[in-house]
């Protein structure tokens, strides 16, 4: 029929052309599909999104609810079923009294836009200060009511920790953060250490694990009365409440981290030291090392490139963006002459204790040893590296992490509760039981560990 | 124009391609196509079709992952992880205890025997004085101020919903900040010391325990977990209470004339560490033990206090009832404070923060700049509050940021709005930071000038 319209010759030519282009068209189509699948096409989306839309549409029309599959997402059904009718206002409306299914992000809002940093300026933590030691010494002399030593061998210490100002993605993450800060409050109360809990991101460039650097600098400069700043990660817990840090040992050091000299200087191993728990003296040297530490931190290209350098230079480091710990290993290994003499890599006790090798041994420790040792027999700090209880995905199975964090918490809490005559029913239990009866002469009772009125908390008798 | 001479012009993926296109249909009449060729052609056709189809499926699998033929293994693994995680979370959030099944049930309290917090102590004042004299390195005054211990707490299990835990965390940070600035120690209690006195009554055994274990502490300050400090500069004028042993926020007329159940608030109060306090705690406790005692007591309280709804006895109503009915015994040592907001009911305060920022300054502690904003009724740790959730959480966030701004001021930062978790710089970095320390550190204000009481 077409032949008759167009003429046989033209028709044949058309068909030939068509034949030729069929292949081209098929290949073009395939290319587009593949590109959409890999790159996506902006608002047109990816085939996966298409598929999901189609599926939802179809399922919707067939009246089935598709259950979203996300690891660690909130489980509502059993809770809403148990609730009574007072939530008839409906979820999501402004008048509901029910806390389930409420999205906090509908409340939080920024009233000002983010600052855009100047991409051409090299990053710096702040204007360079060169005479901090003198400034601080003058200030301390003028302010004798804020001494930097609160006892003969006891410097004033500020323990700094923190977490994100937004709720955790994991529904129980905030609960573990709460237990962790309670644990730190307890230790610090016993040892006369002040606590600063940070929930503010001081510098958007240094987000993530680098956020501690601007914070530490800011605290050192704002609190000249502080002699040592003790940074501690939010996933680290005190498990030895009786152990007092040997401050005299660090008389000539400015930076104390848990680690091994050979692993850092000789092997350049990326886990040769740990920056999850360290002590930093408030002095010019510390400001300088913070300035040298920071350049690998700014997020984006700088951090990515730095990450590649670190993976190349350090032993066993996996491929990811630059982190503060690897950067410190690299800094110390390459500039040992400059910094090494004031850095003390402590391994006589667990200023940082990797949880994997400690948590299963708690019962053995309780049986054989006692608090106050701080080392492998009774670790000062159990640090849950890799667990990330606040996030959605950690490096370890959720059950092991959370259960072990409970055990570590109870292990430390038992030492606090024994002051008052109680203990947890077991290391896994939240309930407590009495181990010492009440008496009508409470002042004659001494707690076993002597933590109620310990020597390291005694004030100088001459102070008023 | 025989089909054999047709050569491919573009792609040479397969030399048979061109022959696919050249189907016999083009050459309509007059040509006899050998059968073998025809079959060959069809075969090539099919080959190409199959090839294209195969490639398409591969690409689609890679992009969409269609159905069961796709990543089914990853799906099942994912499903397992999800189920396992949900089970773990449910276990963590439940109230059950791993050791429960092995323990015998504890005996019920005998309702005829009056409940006691512990053996009666008679000479606490003398014992304490002796102890302080022989332990001069633990004085009851530090830096010229009496030693205060702030006691707060929350239940040991996770809240019914995650936002509750988040606000508990923010509240404890708020308390840490105030207490660091003012040299107060914090005890955060997460243990139920006495099974009988659970819930809001749990503070009683803990207060008693702390008083007896820490004779160096002069005042024990209980604060609810839903109360936030909103004036970081204000300090409690303890010199005002030299002759009193209990400082509590309330209104005397509501207490004695109207006998209202909200005449006092036990969300924030101070107890002096002395015999009188131990006696008051002993007199307060009997309505607490859960079960029939608490229910019966609740009925008595509802009958006697104005405006009280019907529910089990709570510590606040019980204290009000105690102080009303035994007025002569206790009231001379109780200071009912309302010149500043030792407890500030949130609903009337949170909307006025902007006005306060404009007109007033921290350090006042009263309705101009409240000392404590207490979120009674919000109950973020439970499933339901007495108020709409959005209002509660919005207000709590505002109160938290309002207070946090006073802390961040020393560091040169401020929140970007009272509802924003992000901060912005309000003071540039400098190479002489100590000038600002003297100016903005709250502790220095108190050393240089005594607060007005």
From TrEMBL, chain A:
PANTHER family xrefs: XYLOGLUCAN 6-XYLOSYLTRANSFERASE 2-LIKE, XYLOGLUCAN 6-XYLOSYLTRANSFERASE 5-RELATED-RELATED
This enzyme's EC code(s): 2.4.2.39
Protein family membership: Belongs to the glycosyltransferase 34 family.
Reactions it catalyzes: Transfers an alpha-D-xylosyl residue from UDP-D-xylose to a glucose residue in xyloglucan, forming an alpha-(1->6)-D-xylosyl-D-glucose linkage
InterPro entries per record: Glyco_trans_34, Nucleotide-diphossugar_trans
Record-given protein name: xyloglucan 6-xylosyltransferase
Region (Disordered) residue spans: 63-98
Source species taxonomy: Eukaryota, Viridiplantae, Streptophyta, Embryophyta, Tracheophyta
Source organism: Trapa natans (Water chestnut)
Domain of life, per lineage: Eukaryota
Bias kind Basic and acidic residues: ranges: 63-73
UniProtKB/TrEMBL annotation, chain B:
Compartments where found: Golgi apparatus membrane
Originating organism: Trapa natans (Water chestnut)
Biased composition (Polar residues): 1-28
GO biological process annotation, one example: xyloglucan biosynthetic process
Cross-referenced InterPro entries: Glyco_trans_34 (IPR008630), Nucleotide-diphossugar_trans (IPR029044)
Keywords for this protein: Glycoprotein, Glycosyltransferase, Golgi apparatus, Membrane, Signal-anchor, Transferase, Transmembrane, Transmembrane helix
Protein name: xyloglucan 6-xylosyltransferase
Enzyme Commission number: 2.4.2.39
One GO MF term: xyloglucan 6-xylosyltransferase activity
Family the UniProt entry places it in: Belongs to the glycosyltransferase 34 family.
Enzyme class: transferase
GO (cellular component) term, any one: Golgi membrane
Transmembrane helix among keywords: yes
Topological type in the membrane: Single-pass type II membrane protein
Substrates-to-products reaction catalysed: Transfers an alpha-D-xylosyl residue from UDP-D-xylose to a glucose residue in xyloglucan, forming an alpha-(1->6)-D-xylosyl-D-glucose linkage
Residue ranges of the region described as Disordered: 1-29
């Amino acid at each position: 029929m077409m032949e008759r319209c167009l003429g046989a010759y033209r028709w044949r030519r058309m068909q030939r052309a068509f034949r030729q282009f069929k292949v081209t068209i098929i290949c073009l189509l395939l290319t587009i599909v593949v590109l959409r699948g890999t790159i996506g096409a902006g608002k047109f989306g990816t085939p996966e999104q298409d598929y999901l839309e189609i599926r939802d549409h179809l399922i919707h029309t067939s009246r089935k609810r598709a259950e979203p599959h996300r690891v660690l997402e909130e489980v509502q059904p059993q809770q809403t079923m148990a609730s009574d009718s007072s939530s008839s206002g409906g979820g999501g409306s402004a008048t509901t009294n029910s806390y389930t299914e409420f999205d906090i992000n509908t409340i939080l809002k920024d009233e000002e836009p983010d600052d855009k940093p100047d991409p051409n300026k090299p990053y710096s933590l702040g204007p360079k200060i060169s005479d901090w030691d003198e400034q601080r010494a003058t200030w301390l002399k003028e302010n004798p009511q804020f001494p930097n030593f609160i006892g003969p061998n006891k410097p004033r210490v500020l323990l700094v920790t923190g977490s994100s100002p937004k709720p955790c993605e994991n529904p129980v993450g905030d609960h573990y953060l709460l237990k962790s800060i309670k644990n730190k409050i307890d230790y610090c109360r016993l040892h006369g250490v002040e606590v600063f809990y940070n929930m503010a991101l001081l510098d958007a460039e240094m987000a993530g694990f680098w956020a501690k650097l601007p914070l530490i600098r800011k605290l050192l400069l704002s609190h000249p009365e502080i002699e040592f700043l003790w940074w501690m990660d939010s996933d680290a817990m005190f498990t030895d409440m009786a152990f007092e840090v040997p401050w005299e040992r660090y008389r000539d050091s400015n930076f104390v981290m848990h680690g091994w000299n050979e692993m850092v200087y000789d092997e350049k191993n990326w886990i040769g030291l740990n920056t999850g728990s360290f002590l930093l003296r408030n002095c010019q040297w510390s400001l300088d090392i913070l300035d040298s530490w920071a350049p690998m931190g700014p997020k984006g290209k700088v951090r990515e490139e730095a990450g590649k350098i670190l993976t190349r230079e350090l032993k066993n480091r996996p491929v990811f963006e630059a982190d503060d710990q690897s950067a410190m290993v690299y800094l110390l290994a390459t500039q040992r002459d400059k910094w090494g003499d004031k850095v003390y890599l402590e391994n006589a006790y667990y200023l940082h204790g990797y949880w994997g090798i400690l948590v299963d041994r708690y019962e053995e420790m309780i049986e054989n040893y006692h608090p106050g040792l701080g080392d492998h027999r009774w670790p000062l700090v159990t640090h849950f590296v890799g667990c990330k209880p606040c996030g959605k995905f950690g490096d370890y199975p959720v059950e092991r992490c959370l259960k072990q964090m409970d055990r570590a918490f109870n292990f430390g809490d038992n030492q606090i509760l024994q002051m008052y005559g109680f203990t947890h029913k077991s290391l896994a239990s939240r309930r407590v039981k009495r181990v010492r009866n009440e008496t009508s002469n409470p002042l004659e009772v001494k707690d076993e560990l002597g933590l109620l009125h310990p020597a390291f908390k005694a004030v100088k008798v001459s102070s008023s | 124009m025989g089909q054999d001479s047709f050569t491919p012009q573009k792609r040479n993926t397969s030399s048979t391609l061109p022959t696919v296109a050249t189907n016999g249909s083009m050459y309509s009449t007059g040509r006899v196509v050998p059968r073998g060729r025809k079959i060959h052609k069809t075969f090539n056709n099919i080959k190409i079709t199959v090839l294209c189809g195969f490639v398409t499926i591969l690409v689609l699998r890679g992009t969409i992952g269609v159905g069961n033929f796709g990543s089914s293994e990853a799906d099942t693994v994912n499903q397992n992880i999800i189920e396992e995680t949900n089970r773990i979370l449910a276990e963590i959030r439940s109230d059950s205890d791993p050791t429960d099944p092995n323990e015998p049930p504890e005996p019920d309290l005998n309702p005829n025997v009056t409940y006691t917090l512990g053996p009666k102590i008679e000479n606490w004042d003398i014992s304490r004085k002796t102890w302080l004299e022989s332990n001069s390195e633990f004085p009851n005054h530090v830096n010229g101020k009496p030693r205060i211990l702030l006691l707060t707490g929350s239940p040991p299990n996770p809240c019914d919903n995650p936002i509750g835990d988040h606000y508990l965390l923010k509240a404890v940070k708020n308390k840490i900040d105030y207490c660091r600035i003012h040299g107060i120690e914090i005890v955060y209690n997460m243990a139920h010391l006495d099974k009988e006195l659970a819930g809001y009554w749990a503070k009683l055994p803990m207060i008693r325990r702390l008083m007896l274990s820490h004779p160096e502490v002069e005042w024990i300050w209980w604060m609810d977990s839903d109360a936030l400090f909103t004036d970081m500069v204000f300090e409690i004028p303890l010199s005002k209470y030299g002759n009193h042993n209990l400082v509590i926020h309330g209104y005397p007329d509501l207490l004695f004339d109207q006998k209202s159940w909200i005449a006092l608030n036990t969300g924030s109060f101070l107890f002096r560490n002395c015999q009188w306090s131990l006696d008051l705690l002993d007199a307060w406790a009997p309505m607490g033990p859960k079960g029939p005692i608490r229910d019966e007591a609740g009925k008595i309280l509802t009958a006697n206090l104005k405006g009280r709804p019907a529910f089990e006895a709570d510590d606040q109503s019980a204290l009000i009832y105690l102080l009303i009915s035994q007025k002569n015994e206790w009231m001379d040592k109780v200071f009912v404070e309302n010149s500043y907001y030792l407890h500030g009911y949130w609903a009337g305060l949170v909307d006025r923060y902007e006005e306060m920022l404009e007109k007033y300054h921290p350090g006042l502690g009263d309705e101009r700049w409240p000392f404590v904003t207490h979120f009674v009724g919000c109950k973020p740790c439970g499933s339901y509050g007495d108020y709409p959730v959005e209002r509660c959480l919005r207000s709590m966030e505002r109160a938290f940021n309002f207070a946090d701004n006073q802390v961040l001021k020393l560091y040169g930062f401020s929140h970007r709005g009272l509802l924003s978790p992000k901060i912005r710089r309000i003071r540039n970095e400098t190479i002489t930071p100590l000038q600002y320390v003297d100016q903005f550190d709250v502790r220095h204000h108190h050393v240089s000038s005594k607060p007005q009481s």
